[in-house]
Structures are given as structure tokens and as C-alpha cells.
Amino acid sequence: MKRQHLGLYAIALAILIVGLAFAGVPLQTMLFGLFVLACPLMMMFMMRGHGGGSDQEKQDHHTTGHRDG
């Protein structure tokens, strides 16, 4: 997930909330849905920089043809 897309995600969420409100979904139901999604969303944002490895590790992998470990 790239930082440049956060604005688009915010707009999509706003459109979703307005659409659900016009569809007659109660506010309590929408808040509960946001509460349920809060944990996975926070995990995505917190872990987005992990797991890619460093640039040096990637360079070593490409030059040697294998990974250590």
C-alpha cells in the first residue's frame, strides 16, 4: 500500500458511508462495522513497511542467485 493512495481510500470510505446512510443502514451498524474492520486495517498500515527486506538483501539475492536462510 502506497502513501499516495491514502486519499483515494479516504474518499472511497466516505462514499461508502454516505451510500450506506442513503440506503437506510443505521449509524450503530456502520460504527460496528468500522470497529470490526479497525484491527485488520491497523495491521495493514503498521505492517506495510515490513517483509520486503532491505535493498542490500535484494541486491545480494540477484547477484548470487540464492538467499541465505
Description:
- The structure is a single chain.
- The protein has 69 residues and is mainly alpha-helical.
- The chain has a domain at 3-48.
- It is 70% helix and 0% strand.
- It contains 3 helices and no strands.
- It is elongated, with a radius of gyration of 19 Å.
- The mean pLDDT is 77.
How would you summarize the topology of this molecule?
Elements: H1 6-22, H2 27-47, H3 55-64
What is this entry, summarized?
The protein is an all-alpha fold.
* Quaternary structure type: single chain
Q: How do the helices and strands follow one another from N- to C-terminus?
A: HHH
Total strands: the figure is 0
- Class based on secondary structure composition and strand pairing: mainly alpha
Largest sheet: number of strands, sense, barrel closure: none
The helix content, as a percent range, equals: 55-70%
Overall pLDDT score: 77
What is the rounded distance between the termini?
A: 27 Å
Radius of gyration: 19 Å
The count of helical stretches stands at: 3
**Runs with pLDDT <50, length 5+?**
none
Strand content: under 5%
CA-based shape? elongated
Search tags:
mainly alpha, elongated
